[in-house]
Amino acid sequence: MSAPTSNQNPQSSQSTNRFAQFKLVLLGESAVGKSSIVHRFVKNTFDDMRESTIGAAFLTQTITLPESKTTIKFEIWDTAGQERYKSLAPMYYRNANAALCVYDITSRSSFSKAQDWIKELKKQAPEGIVIALVGNKSDLADSREVEESEVEEYIQQASEDGSSIITSECSAKSGDGVLEIFTSIAKSLPVEEAVGAGTNRNRAGAGNRRAGGVDLGRARRPEQASSGCC
Predict the structure, then answer these.
(1) pLDDT tens digits, 139-195
(2) 74, 47 in Cβ contact below 8 A?
(3) 27 by DSSP, 3-state: which?
(4) Burial category of 12 from C-beta neighbours within 10 Å (exposed 0-12, middle 13-18, buried 19 and up)
(5) How remote is the C-alpha of 188 from its chain's centroid?
(6) Whose CB has fewer CB within 10 Å in the chain, the N or C terminal residue?
(7) Strand pairing category for 56-65 and 70-79
(8) Per-domain residue ranges for the chain?
């Protein structure tokens, strides 16, 4: 996987003249590879021995949408997958613009857990939140427990209420499909609305709370431990 277009790419600042930022939260069972996906996206690295996240970890990354000449900044909250941290999740998906629900294609139970997260997001998260259902560890296809046809069937059922869910598979280990996921999310976000609102977070909170990006003031940045497994 090539490194994502970011603010470190000199071509990015030369080719874009608009900016928008959005809050994105990762949800999923422990050991599905949420943090590995984030670190592959942000740093283009993979650590097979990464420790479990404690509470949540915070990272940022920017990508460019060339067709709209817009730089998108993701403010990413990578939540812990252990059950004891589940009660903290609403603090992170509150006011989120997008949620990435991750499962392990070699674990059927993790797929069920991802479905539970989507159900919770539909009830509790902000209206219009962009939801992506992502199967990680595509490099372990020989050990697959979750078939793509099952995912497609679930998406059809879950979309009967008119909602749209982005679905994809990736490998945080090889990098395959990771950048494409975040690009798809970026293209589904209300970029024009956010650009129009500018980067003033107070203005975003006073009007449409989803426009213009993120209010991180309501969530304290927790203690972090880098994680690739949860």
Answers:
(1) 999 999 999 999 999 999 999 988 899 999 999 999 999 999 999 999 999 998 888
(2) no
(3) strand
(4) middle
(5) 12
(6) N
(7) antiparallel
(8) 10-200
Q: Give me 195's structure tokens.
A: 């650009």
Pairing of strands 98-104, 130-136: parallel
Give the whole-angstrom CA distance, residue 46 versus residue 36: 6
Tell me how far apart the alpha carbons of residues 205 and 202 are, in angstroms, rounded to a whole number: 5
- Please name every residue paired with 59 in a beta bridge, in sequence order, or none if there are none: 76
Q: Which two tokens stand for residue 34?
A: 């949420």
Tokens linked to 185: 């999310």
**Sequential pLDDT tens for the chain (230 residues):** 544 554 545 444 454 589 999 999 999 999 999 999 999 999 999 987 656 555 578 999 999 999 989 999 999 999 875 555 577 888 889 899 999 999 999 999 999 999 999 999 999 999 999 999 999 999 999 999 999 999 999 999 999 988 899 999 999 999 999 999 999 999 999 998 888 776 444 344 434 444 334 333 334 444 444 344 44
Residue 207 CB partners (closer than 8 Å, separation 6+): 197
CATH 3.40.50.300 fits 10-200, yes or no: yes
